[in-house]
Amino acid sequence: MSKIESILTESRVFEASENTQNQVALNATSIAQMYEKASKDHVGFWSDLAREKLVWSTPFTVGLDDSNAPHFEWFSDGELNVSYNCIDRHLATKSDKLAIIFEADDGSVDRYTYKELHDQVCRFANTLVSQGIQKGDRVVIYMPMIPQAVIAMQACARIGAIHSVVFGGFSAESLRDRIENAGAKLVITANAGRRGGKTIPLKQAVDEALEKGGDHVRKVIVFKRTNDDVPMQAGRDIDWYDAEAGMSNYHDPVMVNSEHPLFLLYTSGSTGKPKGVQHSTGGYLLNAHVTNEWMFDLSDNDVFWCTADVGWITGHTYVAYGPLSVGATILMFEGVPTYPDAGRFWKMCQDHGVTIFYTAPTAIRALMKFGAELPSQYDLSKLRILGTVGEPINPEAWIWYYNEIGGARCPVIDTWWQTETGAHMIAPFPVTPLKPGSCAKALPGIDAVILDEEGGALGTDEGGLLVIKKPWPSMIRNVWGDEARYQQTYFPLKDSVAGGETLYVVGDSAYQDKDGYFWILGRVDDVLNVSGHRLGTMEIESALVAHPKVAEAAVVSRPDDIKGEAISAFVVLNTGISHDETEREALVQELREWVAKEIGAIAKPSDIHFGSNLPKTRSGKIMRRLLKTLARGEEILQDTSTLEDPSVLEQFKKPKSL
Ligand code: WTA
User: Fold this and answer.
1) Over the stretch 370-383, which tens digit does the pLDDT of each residue have?
2) Section 562-585 average pLDDT
3) What domains sit in the chain, N to C, each tagged with a CATH number?
4) CB contact at 8 A, 387 and 398
5) Would the N or C end of the chain have less CB density within 10 A of its end CB?
6) In a 3-state reduction of DSSP, which class is residue 444?
């Protein structure tokens, strides 16, 4: 049964355990009151929360400003600082409380109290200023998953610099694109990182990226994470600690307008290169803060572990900002779930007394393969809430997670959201009755609907476009440097902005069941979701055709038991390139490595199929539906009479899988 079929037949409902009901701050009544308030007064609801949950240096008087729709501004005459809200405000009451517990790849542990985090962030903020960085400047962060990544992000926020974190798994080419698009003045990196017992070079990629571009980058700050020496370019590169020498532990946070961009985060779309999703300060932090309280019941006594890397939006909202804003303790982990063995996550939950654990379905499916015996060796009794993010979770993985990790005691919070939404949008509260495979209902103040392609309403169980009808505080503000793309991508429907409503089109299809629960079916555009990571088919196709031996390429996904989706590439080689079977294997490797070099290892195709032409219609359009069928290894039942040359399909039937 495919993933989608299996959710269509899923009908189990799991009520919150008595334990959960008694423990959590928000019960069904208080949640119902929030929904009621939000539906009566959308702007008032968010504005009251913004006053209650955040500390403002200049209080706002304007809730929502929609005069420039579809650019929406929230709390736009208020001022605040994110780092102050995440750190300083807790110092009076919890300066000795742990803010970060860090476990390195080799198992060694480091701890930072809120006071220590404050001092480190201040020192680094002063360092950035001494290197010439000012409010509004862009700073690229290309780091391993270590506390210095969070310190760097918080330090940028403290001085009003706009950070753009690039996932350490992206290649030098991808890094360069992002550095250039953001117009970054400074790059923060590490000599290398450690993952699964291996050293992952990082500074080397920065050097390569800057060799052929990024001319506006004046300085590179290098944190020495391992003992490996890296070349340092005089005048440009500085060691983190040398740069920090003599810097004060105090820095007066720069208060910025609520709409000041906090960060850019690049993410894939259907067309072109990844786009820089621009987030705000006040609106972003508000949703980051409240969703940590609502979905995870996060409070003082919790140890919260979100396993996402800070290179992704999840690592921004549920590692670097949200939980600290709430004043909780976070666990950060440098390594991988299967090193030294597949019990690592569960051992860490036990050793650090993790109470809330948030990960991707891919990780659960991968660890499930090793059986329930591994987790059963560890004491997981402190866990009280589990979460998932990034891709649909199949009911089988949900049930395993619920039973084997949560001891049938902890709710599984399936959170639907995106880089662009900034924070959770559709998700259950811990007391919400749960249906495995559904992310339950839209949050209070989030108006989600299912519409057809013309914007018409659809009924119960009818699949269509997932659309958000009203602006919300943490929504994307713009695509950095590409206003047209912002409008075209997210507001393509006719009358997108009319009568106080806005039709933000998410890019996913979904349906709503009779109880109003949402079931996400997948992307409707050319975006792939591989292990919860977003990749555009066009990016991978452009990488492939940039290879000297490749004439044409088309990329589609096929279902994969662990990764959710796997990448299947269809390639036409240039004339004169040998089609000899014996050389194919080497060529497959060469192309996979090429894509890793162009984009990053996460974009490597799982299968490569070769042929002399792609299946195209007479008007020259590639028939991707047929390629999807071929990628699945299924028989072609579609009508192929519109193909220019139906015989091309035969050649593609033999994949070169790995
Ligand atoms: C998918 C990750 C089903 C969806 C936070 C969305 C999900 C894309 C879920 C955003 C979920 C995310 N169930 N699908 N709980 N969460 N998605 O920007 O297709 O990396 O549009 O943000 O992931 O991916 P992004």
Assistant:
1) 999 999 999 999 99
2) 87
3) 531-658 (3.30.300.30)
4) no
5) N
6) coil
Tell me the one-letter amino acid at 584. R
pTM summary value: 0.95
Q: Tell which atom from ligand 1 comes closest to the C-alpha of 414.
A: 15
Query: Which of 553-580 are b and which e, b meaning 16 or more Cβ less than 10 Å from the residue's Cβ?
Result: bbbbbbebebbbbbbbbbbbbeeeeeee
DSSP letter assigned to residue 381: T
Please choose from 386, 418, 468, 531 the residue to mutate so as to test ligand 1's pocket, defined by most ligand atoms within 8 A of CB: 418
Confidence check: pLDDT of 392 > 90: yes
Report whether residue 4 contacts ligand 1, using a CB cutoff of 6 Å.
no
pLDDT tens, residue by residue, 125-170: 999 999 999 999 999 999 999 999 999 999 999 999 999 999 999 9
Mutation test residue for ligand 1: of 316, 534, 563, 602, the one with most atoms within 8 Å of CB: 534
DSSP assignment of 290-339 equals HHHHHHH---TT-EEEE---TTSHHHIIIIIIHHHHHT-EEEEE-S-TTS
3-state secondary structure of 391: coil
What is the CA(258)–ligand 1 centre distance, in A?
26
What does the pLDDT average to over 247-255? 98
CA of 598 to the centre of ligand 1 (A): 24
The label of the residue with tokens 């040998």 reads 578
- pLDDT of residue 2 exceeding 50, the answer is no
Residue 371 CB neighbour total at 10 angstroms: 12
C-alpha span between 618 and 616 (Å, rounded): 6
Q: Specify whether the CB–CB gap between 185 and 139 falls below 8 A.
A: yes
Q: In the chain, what is the greatest distance between 2 CA atoms, to the nearest angstrom?
A: 74
Considering only CA atoms, which residue is closest to atom 12 of ligand 1? Answer: 390
Contact 474, 283 (CB under 8 A): yes
Measured torsion, CA atoms of residues 151, 153, 156, 157, in degrees rounded to the nearest 10: -110
Say if ligand 1 is within 6 A of residue 313 CB. Answer: yes
Backbone φ and ψ for 184, nearest 5 degrees, come out as -70, 145
pLDDT number for residue 658: 43
Q: How far apart are CA 575 and CA 596, in angstroms?
A: 24
Measured CA to CA, the distance from residue 166 to residue 138 in angstroms comes to 13
The DSSP code for 641 is T
Q: Is 595 exposed, middle or buried (0-12, 13-18, 19+ CB in 10 A)?
A: buried
Ligand 1 pocket check: which of 3, 519, 529 to mutate, most ligand atoms within 8 Å of Cβ?
529
Protein residue with its CA nearest to atom 23 in ligand 1: 390
